[in-house]
Amino acid sequence: MPIQIFDTLSENKKALKKPSKGKKIRLFVCGPTVYGPIHIGNARTYLIFDMFVRYLRSTGISVFYLQNITDVDDKIIAQAVKDSSDSKVIADKYKKIYLKDVKTLGISSVNRYAPATKYIPEIVKQVKTLVRKGNVYKIDNDGYYFDVTTFPEYGKLARRTIAQAEDGLSRIDESVLKRNKADFCVWKFSKAGEPKWKTELGAGRPGWHIEDTAITEYFFGPQYDIHGGGIDIKFPHHEAEIAQQESASGKKPFVKIWMHAGALTVNGKKMSKSLDNFITLRDFLKKYPADILRVMVLMHHYRSPMDYTEKSAEDAEISLNNIKIFLAKTDLAIKKGSGTLSHSFNFPTIFERSLANDFNTPVALGTIFHCVNYGNKLIWQMNKKSLKETKDFIKKGLELFGISTKLPKIPLKIKGMAAQREKLRDNKQFTQSDALRKEIEGLGYITEDTPWGQLIWPSRQSK
Q1: Kind plus residue range of the DSSP H or E element containing 436
Q2: Rounded to whole angstroms, how far apart are CA atoms 188 and 142?
Q3: Contact 355, 362 (CB under 8 A)
Q4: Distance between CA atoms of 204 and 185, rounded to whole angstroms?
Q5: What average pLDDT score do residues 98-120 get?
Q6: Does position 174 have pLDDT exceeding 80, yes or no?
Q7: For residue 460, is pLDDT > 80?
Q8: Which of 4, 103, 119, 397 gives the lowest tally of CB atoms within 10 Å of its CB?
Q9: How confident is the model at residue 394 (pLDDT cuts 50, 70, 90)?
Q10: Residue 291 parent element (H or E)
Q11: Is the pLDDT of residue 449 over 70?
Q12: CA–CA separation, 90 vs 266, rounded Å?
């Protein structure tokens, strides 16, 4: 079935066609500015695109997924001053932390991470092109700025006129000598103690926006398929990218599809250190496994806002635990059961259609939940073929999203105690079996009696 993805620029769904043999979908996602650990809002964006790429590849579509890392920036310099350190030391430290964190999250779909400092020649080349074309001007002892009035369509992504853009500045470089308030710096002359590269432009460092277009032009050329990132950087960052690349190349569109991940709030409020609701990924992972965050992300459409609460995390943990308990029951029923009911579900079709329709993960995940709920009613009557088909659908669905379906390993001691309890029950020694059950619970495990034997499972308190 055809895959449709919503394009933020046109505000319409666009067909994503399978590339011809030997070709790949080229996807770029804005990576982190490495001046501190990422927060759960950042993690949501990176998980969305990891799961999206996993999905595309599962359909036979080849993808080259490129992500930059901003390792030179005003924020990094400010953090270095605060820590009485060097900006390169700070950038290297948090770049390593970031790469370790995404590995912990199970993000494995990125083909190439591209640190900005590795592409200074490409950045300088693009700035020189923009200077030559008259889009960029120089301010002595300051830097080179992009004149937004030279690109009449500036604001088309965020639906702003240039005047409106000037009224809604966000992370725009300040200078009293700029021609227009919305003009942004593409090359900054470095001050004492700041990182710098000696180039034809002068000793300095790249601005925030120019690194992305220089990097993508190097890997993909002036035009490519999909650009992703968080909604918070749609303006001015992505707006600036369009202006830079379309001005430099003279070709439109810069990208075919713009995908923007919705914002994340905490208890209904914007995440902020001043509000004491700032949650780093590492803080989250101290309490919950990475798969719980994946489930939470899947429960929200990628374009929709997501509100994080402790209850939502606990609910996600319970939901995933219930799915795995069901998988354990199917294993038990397949091994020992003798049900005869043949039953087929329509869930796989719904699952596939929902993902093809603008990557609608809440519906896709919902089909797995419905399958579990429905299956729980019939599991002890179903035949082995139906059980295996049900189990395979659930496992493949979760694994597609990078969620582990590995069941917990039960210690031999607990298995032995459970076997002894079952013998006591068979001998109708219920007082003794109940006492042993409570002993097992005290060790962090629960037992559930089923038509085909005991199910042993870790209690939530033991995790």
Answers
A1: helix 430-442
A2: 6
A3: no
A4: 12
A5: 97
A6: no
A7: no
A8: 103
A9: very high
A10: helix 290-298
A11: yes
A12: 27
Cross-sheet strand order for the sheet of 112-115 = 112-115, 63-69, 25-29, 224-230, 255-261
> Does the pLDDT at position 1 exceed 90?
no
Whether 118 shows a pLDDT value over 60: the answer reads yes
Q: Is the pLDDT of residue 462 over 50?
A: no
Q: Kindly write down the DSSP assignment for every residue of 102-141, as one continuous string.
A: HHHTT----SEEEEGGGGHHHHHHHHHHHHHTTSEEEETT
Whether the link from the prior residue into 236 is cis, omega within 30° of 0, is yes
For residues 52-91, b (16+ Cβ closer than 10 Å) or e, as one string?
bbbbbeeeebebbbbbbbbbbbbbbbebbeeeeeebeebb
Predicted pLDDT of residue 172: 63
The first and second tokens of residue 107, run together, are 């993000």
Decide: 419 and 410 in contact? Cβ < 8 Å: no
pLDDT band at 24 (very low <50, low <70, confident <90, very high): very high
Rg of the Cα atoms in the chain: 27
Average pLDDT, the chain: 94
Q: DSSP assignment of 170-191, as one string?
A: SSPPP-TT-SSTT-EEEEEEPP
Q: What is the pLDDT of residue 338?
A: 87
Whether residue 343 contacts residue 386, with contact meaning beta carbons closer than 8 Å, is answered with yes
Q: State how far the alpha carbon of 90 is from the alpha carbons of 34, 118, 195, 379, 413, in Å.
A: 8, 16, 12, 55, 48
Joined together, the tokens standing for residue 43 give 């993690």
What is the value of pTM for the model shown? Answer: 0.94
Buried b / exposed e over 184-223, threshold 16 CB at 10 Å, is bbbbbbbeeebbbbebebbebbbbbbbbbbbbbbbbbeeb
DSSP assigned state of 194:
S
Question: Over 331-391, what HEC string results?
Answer: HHHHHHCCCCECCCCCHHHHHHHHHHECCCHHHHHHHHHHHHHHHHHHCCCECHHHHHHHH
In single-letter form, the type of residue at position 381 comes to Q
Instruction: Please provide residue 381's backbone torsions phi and psi, each rounded to the nearest 5 degrees.
Output: -105, -15
| Rounded distance between C-alpha atoms, residue 51 and residue 399, angstroms | 10
- Evaluated on CA atoms 445, 449, 450, 453, the torsion sign reads positive
Alpha carbons 329 and 375: distance in angstroms, whole number:
10
Tokens for 166, please give them. Answer: 């000037």
Residues in the chain: 463
Q: Which amino acid is at 341?
A: L
* CB neighbour list of residue 305: distance below 8 Å, 6 or more residues apart: 262, 263, 264, 265
Exposed/middle/buried for residue 47 (C-beta within 10 Å: 0-12, 13-18, 19+): buried
